[in-house]
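Morning, I've got a small favour to ask if you have a moment. You're getting the sequence in one-letter code plus the fold written as tokens. Thanks so much in advance, here it is:

===
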Amino acid sequence: MKLFRKRDFITIGFILLFSAAAITLFYTILKPTETLPIYQPAEVNEKLVDTSIIHVSKYHKISDFKLINQNGEEITQEFYKNKIYVADFFFTTCQDICPIMTKNMYRLQEELKEDNDVLFLSHTVIPEIDTVQQLKKYAVDNNIDESRWNLVTGDKKQIYELARKSYLAVEDAEFGEYDMIHTENFMLIDKKRQIRGFYDGTDNLEINRLLSDIEILKKID
């Protein structure tokens, strides 16, 4: 005597399939959407923020800029329009954290080389030394993809203000006007020119976190 008829198996299969779909849908609804904070000057270490904006708690964005890259080309915010990008501050003759930061930015470049929505921007903090020629040599020595990664120099005051009023990334130095003490920070900037994350550019685990956050940002930006 048959315990189950063919149509019973079909019914059971349908119930199991429906149950699996229902569980998946239920889990999707309950699972919180991953997101990233939008950083404001008031939330960042005050040593890295210009005193004129230290109390700003909303609407902070990266300011317009006009700098010169390693090929002598003028680079403005238009180059990064509707793009996600990673920014940092460095100088070419730095022998401590800069080589590690550059190595890790290169890692980002290579791991994201098929992703045209993500770009890179490195600002020198010593523009009087880091000329176009110096930056070009540094770019060649470090295998930089110049279509996606700009090393920029220019007016020292503008770089200083970008660092401390826009990217909230460097410390003020007391030994000269507009002198800066750069940090190991990488900043993740969204398509609206907002800061979405700070990362230790010398730490491999932090680079992993940055890569993960880029994927999150691509879904929500």
Summary: Helices lie at 6-30, 98-111, 132-141, 156-166, 204-220. Residues 24-28 have pLDDT under 50 and may be disordered. The longest helix spans residues 6-30.
